[in-house]
């Protein structure tokens, strides 16, 4: 399998799922907002959280720059919550004000266990920067909440598009003063990595439990084809990435 033989000048990080654990954070929060008389089990709240994230992703991916009306991630998450409580038959569970507050959970997600130390180590090797579909205020809150030591924050909002539109990846490279080929996307989603590669960046794939949306066959094909520049397997995460880059 290919591996990086030079250190990228900038590491651009996907955030949801790659850096922060949205699934556990949102599930725990939703359950806590309804205990002790929750209408759903913890497993059902996890499914609710997964559908909430999926609704947001679909809406973001459906956006067409120049043709669709721009909505930032906060607005997409809030609209999705209204849709989901109706679907699940729990639309009377919370007031509008309570739902406004609940939708802000996406600003307060917990980091992955390796995120803080791993990013700190990577800062000594390359420039680190977020590149997330989350809007800028959301990302600022996540960094504060999780003490995430990124050198810089960039959002899809900066470029008026959502990943995997090439303008997001290429715009981020230009904003940092680099060519796309000098930068690498770090993500736990092969679709995101594929978008980065098509835009001229390198791709670093970090395996995270329950994060990959591609089926096993497509994942194995991607691994065999070798277009991912660096593939971090298992639980190694950012710490293993740091070790690999130090050996370049």
The coarse silhouette is globular
> What is the CA-atom radius of gyration, in angstroms?
18 Å
- Low-confidence stretches are none
Helix content class: 40-55%
Number of strands: 6
Query: Cα distance, first to last residue?
Result: 15 Å
H/E topology pattern: EHHHHHEHEHEHEHEH
Largest sheet features: 6 strands, parallel
Structural class: alpha/beta
For the largest beta sheet, what order do the strands appear in spatially? 3-2-1-4-5-6
Separate helix tally:
10
Percent range for β-strand residues: 5-15%
Oligomeric form: single chain
Average pLDDT score: 96
Walk me through what this model shows.
The chain has 248 residues and is α/β, with parallel strands linked by helices. The protein has helices spanning 22-32, 42-62, 73-87, 96-102, 115-123, 136-146, 166-175, 190-198, 216-225, 237-246; strands at residues 10-13, 127-132, 152-155, 183-187, 202-206, 230-232. The protein has a six-stranded parallel β-sheet, with helices on both faces. Helix 1 packs across helix 2, helix 2 crosses helix 3 (73-87) and helix 5 runs parallel beside helix 10 (237-246).
């Amino acid at each position: 399998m290919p591996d990086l033989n030079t250190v990228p000048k900038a590491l651009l990080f996907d955030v949801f799922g790659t850096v922060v654990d949205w699934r556990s954070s949102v599930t725990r929060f939703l359950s806590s907002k309804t205990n002790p008389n929750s209408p759903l089990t913890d497993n059902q709240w996890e499914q609710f959280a997964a559908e909430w994230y999926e609704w947001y992703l679909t809406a973001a991916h459906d956006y067409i720059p120049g043709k669709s009306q721009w909505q930032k991630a906060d607005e997409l998450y809030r609209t999705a919550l209204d849709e989901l409580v109706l679907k699940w038959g729990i639309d009377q569970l919370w007031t509008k004000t309570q739902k406004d507050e609940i939708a802000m959970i996406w600003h307060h997600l917990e980091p992955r266990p390796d995120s803080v130390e791993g990013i700190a180590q990577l800062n000594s090797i390359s420039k680190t920067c977020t590149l997330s579909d989350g809007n800028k205020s959301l990302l600022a809150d996540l960094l504060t909440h999780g003490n995430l030591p990124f050198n810089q924050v960039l959002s899809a909002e900066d470029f008026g598009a959502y990943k995997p539109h090439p303008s997001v990846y290429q715009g981020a490279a230009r904003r940092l003063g680099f060519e796309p080929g000098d930068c690498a996307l770090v993500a736990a989603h092969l679709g995101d990595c594929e978008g980065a590669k098509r835009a001229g960046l390198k791709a670093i794939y970090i395996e995270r439990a329950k994060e990959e949306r591609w089926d096993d066959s497509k994942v194995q094909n991607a691994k065999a084809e070798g277009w991912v520049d660096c593939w971090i397997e298992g639980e190694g995460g950012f710490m293993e990435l740091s070790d690999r880059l130090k050996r370049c």
